[in-house]
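Input (structure):
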């Protein structure tokens, strides 16, 4: 993966600072104990609204909820964070971009107990292409079921988008890449399907769409929720239920969803070809999704927040 496309500024604790000056102390609590929560958000260049952030309110709400789960009181309101995100995009003069707000325990003392460490927040934006590669959306990706399991309920809170959770994800991603795959799929301790290292998962079987429920230790994805809405609007039945591993091998279609991955079809799992190798449901959903984020569908315009208007 290429180096980040550096922008001009990063917003830190209420002010814009030059990209290269956005620094924290080496003894910052989050650096040692993963005491941080974050979001991944996208802004798209649209026809009607210009640059617009997709589902900004929902992402900010999830950031605040993640912090609440970890007993971090953010020193800025929902509206403050929204405005800071828009301010950062404007300052960096983006037409489209990826947005990374992070809330973390800062520098004070160093021990597992975090309460005396200040809660800090930073927001970065940069230009970023397709997470799984430019051809992934068209041709699909090859994935494996990871040897690493997803952490079980009551070990780490999967509903929080926490930095700690991505230690698990890194192990999955590294294993997949080193074995020649684009991505890995995690199973839960009971053997049912959870998600990808950084994506939610959907399976199409006999024109019904299945996806693991929140109880399967998944992140409550904003794109996941969007795709469920789109699928239902298109007339598909969507079932949220525990899914066994072998369902992947007999599926007609399998696909990932996520802010970074958007809607990416999966062409094989463990070197077993998925379905007939075409993706009719994925193509239908992709068209609606990309028309949506381009501002072309009136009923979904409320999900887009203009940046420069």
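Output (sequence):
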């Amino acid at each position: 993966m290429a180096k980040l496309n550096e922008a001009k500024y990063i917003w830190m604790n209420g002010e814009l600072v030059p990209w290269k000056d956005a620094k924290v102390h080496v003894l910052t609590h989050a650096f040692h104990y993963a005491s941080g929560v974050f979001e991944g958000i996208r802004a798209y260049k649209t026809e009607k609204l210009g640059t617009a952030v997709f589902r900004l309110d929902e992402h900010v709400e999830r950031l605040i909820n993640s912090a609440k789960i970890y007993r971090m009181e953010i020193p800025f309101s929902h509206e403050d964070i929204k405005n800071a995100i828009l301010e950062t995009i404007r300052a960096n003069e983006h037409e489209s971009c990826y947005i990374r707000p992070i809330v973390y325990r800062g520098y004070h003392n160093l021990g597992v107990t975090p309460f005396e460490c200040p809660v800090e927040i930073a927001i970065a934006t940069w230009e970023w292409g397709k997470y799984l590669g430019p051809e992934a959306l068209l041709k699909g990706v090859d994935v494996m079921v990871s040897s690493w399991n997803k952490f079980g309920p009551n070990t780490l809170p999967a509903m929080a988008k926490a930095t700690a959770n991505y230690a698990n994800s890194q192990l999955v991603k590294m294993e997949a890449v080193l074995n020649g795959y684009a991505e890995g799929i995690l199973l839960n301790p009971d053997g049912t399907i959870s998600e990808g290292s950084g994506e939610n998962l959907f399976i199409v079987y006999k024109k019904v769409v299945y996806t693991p429920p929140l109880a399967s230790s998944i992140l409550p994805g904003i794109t996941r929720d969007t795709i469920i809405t789109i699928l239902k609007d298109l007339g598909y039945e969507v079932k949220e239920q525990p899914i066994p591993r072998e369902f992947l091998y007999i599926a007609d279609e399998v696909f990932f969803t996520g802010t970074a991955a958007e809607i990416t079809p999966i062409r094989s799992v463990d070197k077993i070809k998925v379905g007939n190798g075409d993706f009719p449901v994925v193509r239908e959903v992709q068209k609606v999704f990309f028309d949506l984020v381009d501002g072309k569908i009136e009923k979904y315009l409320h999900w887009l927040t203009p940046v420069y208007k």
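Notes: The two ends are 33 Å apart (CA to CA). The first helix runs from residue 29 to 33.
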